[in-house]
Structures are given as structure tokens and as C-alpha cells.
Specification:
The protein is an alpha/beta fold and 168 residues long. 43% of the residues lie in helices and 16% in strands. The strands form two sheets. The chain has a four-stranded parallel sheet, sandwiched between helices. It has a two-stranded antiparallel sheet with strand order 4-5. Helix 3 packs parallel to helix 4 and helix 5 runs parallel beside helix 6. The longest helix is centred in the C-terminal third of the chain and has 16 residues.
Length: 168
Amino acid sequence: MHDNQPKHRQMRKEQRRIARQKASRGGLPAILVVCEGRETEPNYSDGLRDHMRINAAAVHIEVGDSVTDPVGLVRKAQKLFKSDRDYDLVFVICDGDSHHLTAARALAARPLRNAAGVTTKVQIIASCPSIEFWLLLHFEYSALSRSFSCPNACADAMARNAISRSGT
């Protein structure tokens, strides 16, 4: 027997209205970042992530340790990705003045398939001339014509800037 009373129709309609809706928004992408250095690049990446207000749980930063060449870093990123396929994006941060950058870009072009079946590639972020120059630009204006002979020259300029700001 089918109950078609208005009270019952109204209750069914109300139950459908308050039923839990399907999620309409996807989660944050999981990002793997492999950095060349042990301190500068990871600290810079952490600071940038904090500044951009990106959830720390969504970004995993891995240091290169003894691996310093771009090809080795791309291989390390691919190895880490294959051991944990939950990442949506993979980045490698390395110095752009390396002569192995072309070979690293060719290796990075190989597609990787994550756990959800989506393909991605390792994206290389080459800091040219160095990550220290990027950091310097956050604190001090520097014309492009001004050149630094090495990353240590950038670090010295940052130290001078810190001393002049502190007033000592």
C-alpha cells in the first residue's frame, strides 16, 4: 500500500533537503619540492609558503643532501614520487648556472602517474644566478646591471643590509 498523504510527502522532501551533500570542492594539491641545498633553498621555500599562506600539510620539502646537480635532483624527485605517489605536483629547485640543466629538463619531461591516475612531470625551477640573489631582492633593490661574482657576494650584501637596518 502506497502512502501518499501530504504529511509523508513533506517529510520525504525535507529529508532529501537536509541530506548530506557530496563534496563540491576538491582538496588542496599535494606538492613535493626537492631543493639543492640543505638550508638556503628549503628555508626560502618555507618562507615563501608561509608568505603565500599555503597549508604546510600540502607541501613536502625535501633537501638534496649530497645531490647538487640538476640531473641528480630530478632523479631524486622521481624516486621520491615513485615511493609515494600521492603527490599532484613535483618541483626541483636548483641553481640555473649549471651546465647539466638541459639534460635535467629532458629527464624531467618524462611523465609520472600519481595514485589517482593523473600524469604530471617534474618542473624545474632554476634560480639564476643563485637562490641567494632571490633572497637579496627581498631585502634590497638591485639593478640587473649589478653582478655578483658568486653566491657568497650575495650573502655578504645581505649581511651588510641586515647590519645597516639594525643601526649598528
